[in-house]
């Protein structure tokens, strides 16, 4: 899942997805203002949430492809 922070309701959508047990969410294009390094570390560890990066890399990761660096 990819969640964009273009609207204020994105926070409630994120918490709803987490309450439903959805993991592996990509956030972007930038982290919301309320997410600091400590909060991001917890979200990443507990819910596999990550910031979006390069489109091809994100798509490959979301689809489970092996990425050659």
Automatic annotation (TrEMBL):
GO-annotated molecular function: hydroxylamine reductase activity; iron-sulfur cluster binding; metal ion binding; peroxidase activity
A Pfam entry, by short name: Prismane
Keyword Iron included in the entry's annotation: yes
Keywords: Iron, Iron-sulfur, Metal-binding
This protein's record includes keyword Iron: yes
GO biological process, one term: response to hydrogen peroxide
Name the UniProt record assigns to this protein: Hydroxylamine reductase
Species of provenance: marine sediment metagenome
